[in-house]
Amino acid sequence: MAPINANDINDAKAFMPAKKVLPEVETDGANGNGNGNGNGNSPKGYSYETLLEIANFLLSRISVKPHIGIICGSGMGSLAETIQEPVSILYEDIPNFPVSTVEGHHGQLVFGKINDIPVMAMQGRFHYYEGYPLWKCCLPVRVMKLIGIKTLIATNAAGGLNPSYKIGDIMIVKDHINMMGFAGNNPLHGPNDERFGPRFPPMSKAYNYEYRKVAREIAKELNIDNIVREGVYTCLGGPNFETVAELNMLKMVGVDAVGMSTVHEVITARHCDLNVFALSLITNECVTSYDNNDEANHEEVLDVGRMRQDILRKFVSKLVERFAQIETNH
Ligand SMILES: O=P(O)(O)O[C@H]1O[C@H](CO)[C@@H](O)[C@H]1O
Ligand SMILES: Nc1nc2[nH]cnc2c(=O)[nH]1
Hints:
Organism: Mythimna separata (Oriental armyworm)
GO molecular function: purine-nucleoside phosphorylase activity
Pathway: Purine metabolism; purine nucleoside salvage
Low-confidence stretches: 1-19, 27-43
Helix content: 25-40%
Bound molecules: 1-O-phosphono-alpha-D-ribofuranose, guanine
EC number: 2.4.2.1
Distance between the termini: 70 Å
Shape: globular
Protein name: Purine nucleoside phosphorylase
Mean pLDDT: 89
């Protein structure tokens, strides 16, 4: 056989579901996991001033400041299609902004209104497995804070680990387990900038209780309470889906749904005092038995997102309306 060369290795990218050029893997920490000093103060991190520049760039493009930020999960980008009077800005046109590389993540911000409430939606989030350090995955959350957003609604696609969960269920996230954090990989790793928040932020009330209660009420009003659950989410680094043994371990420690996002975004959001609501769309049932021949795959994840898009749009637009009311009353 002909010897393998660098071009052959590059050709392997053709088999990846990437739609854009992959980012350089950023290893600005001594441990090579991309997190060392990566909280915005390292030479390779982004300073408060750089984030402010991004925020000001965005504010110069819009006429109304958004109150609520929405992160659209894999295959859930159509949530942003409910936005009226939309102003879309591609990530690649925003100075110093990362770009989306994953199928099902369009790669743009959409500003406008949902039920008359000014919002900003990320049609595409950034994942650790794309090669971004966690602080960079969460950079848009800090930008949200700087442009005046008070509430973050994070959505994600996740595997259902709780045996009672079905494909297409929507799980209100009541808590998370930061598995990557257990190994020291945290978006807040590195020097702390007090202008964003404290060195040691609490996480015991990460997912706003009032929002969760209202979300359950909305589920009843929309007659979808039979598919709406409440549970614990965890994020693993990905990009591979989990082994049977890994899933059984997660189940034992109380995880209801597993994905590859959200946890670090929520930590960053709580650090800078955003109110947080998160939901998981259960896109696949996790395989916890060696007798089960099913295998998780990204196409199915995207298909379930499409299948549930109408319900999710209705649900999220009600959430936006009611969360805004709660904030006005406070
Ligand atoms: O968490 P979101 O971005 O919704 O996507 C989830 O679905 C993808 C795997 O199919 C992974 O990116 C996982 O994190
Ligand atoms: N880690 C992980 N992420 C997912 N995203 C959608 N489904 C899954 C899953 O089963 N596992």
